[in-house]
Amino acid sequence: MKRTLLCTISLFAIIGCTPEKRSPDAIRQDTANATAEAARDAKAVAQGVVEGLKEKGPININKATEGDLEGLPGIDSVTAGKIVAARPYNTSSDLVRRHLITKSEYDRIANRIVAR
Fold first, then answer.
1. What's the DSSP call for residue 19?
2. What is the pLDDT of residues 60-109, one digit of tens each?
3. pLDDT at 13 over 70
């Protein structure tokens, strides 16, 4: 009796662990979905690389043109003119210390500017 019960349980375990039979159409569809997802991911990576290459690094506020400074978020032509007129700077935080921009404006652009 115990052997029969043990064999039955073993048989169910073996049957339950066998891989599911899938049709070739289902396999093709899964492959197509995976390929499409990989293509989207590759395109996103390539776009990120292109954007990274376009980014030249931080702007030197001691040498940048007004046009370069206007490209920073929150900096208009008047503020860019003030920044150029008040040169030279020892550090980028001099912009806030000299009251050329607010602290919140500085926080938005701090990682995009340097003073060299």
1. P
2. 999 999 999 998 998 999 999 999 999 999 999 999 999 999 999 999 99
3. no
pLDDT at residue 19 is higher than 80: no
Pair 85, 71: CB distance under 8 Å:
no
Q: Which residue has the tokens 């690389």?
A: 49
The closest of 49, 46, 48, 26 to 38, measured between CA atoms, is 46
CATH of 59-114, one of 1.10.150.320, 3.40.50.300, 2.30.130.40, 3.65.10.10: 1.10.150.320
Number of residues that make up the chain: 116
pLDDT at residue 41 tops 90: no
18 to 11, 14, 95: CA distances (angstroms) = 11, 7, 69
Ordered by start, the domain boundaries in the chain are 28-56, 59-114
* Cβ-contact 70, 80 below 8 angstroms: yes
Separation between Cα atoms, residue 77 and residue 82, nearest integer Å: 9
